[in-house]
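Quick note —
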Amino acid sequence: MRGIYSAGMGMLNSLQRLNSISNNLANVNTNGYKKDTSLFKAILEKEFYSFPKNSQKGIGIGKTETAVVLDKVVPEMTQGKLVETNNNFDMAILGKGFFKVQSGKDIFYTRDGEFKLSADGYLVDNNGNKILDETNNPIRVQKNLEINENGNINNTSNKIGIVELKNLSKKGTNYFIGTEVKDTISKIKQGYVEKSNVDTLKEMVNMISANREFEILQKAVQSQDSLNAKAIEITRT
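Predicted structure written out below.
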């Protein structure tokens, strides 16, 4: 049974890898998307002891893991490629910063700088959520919007809100939550958008690898099941 259990746990982990890879490939054209990476951990560790001759006290000689399970899925925050759009409402961040977005009473964060002008004159994202300035107020703009690399709006002291995040995690596909940290390094490029940081070729290779891994483990479960059935049959004769 130990062999079936270990192979079965491996199959579950392979499925989790495939889920993350599939999600990454589905968002390869999503502006500002950050690829997911699955992290695993060993659990149910057992300690092995050596007992010297005539000794009652064992000496630890190592551990073995009885299972490996998904620990967490984390976003990989490497910079995506910047593509020029010549649209003055589009913005990309060079650095680790995030735009601040108001959704209802909540504030989320995003790297997707494909913005628009709403009917009532506010800067909004593709979901209609308002983009905030550095004092958490919605930004009212005109069609002749100009943002310099420091975030100043139309040559005024008012700045678009850019912050870094600690302990960040994803909220949905393209929003993040976390603890705000002041950003003094990131720069803004107006007329550009940041593309996804998913490497399509690498993800396809990873998908093939995960599929093969799943198939091998599936055969291992079948083989172990067959051996167990034969062992039971032998004990009955």
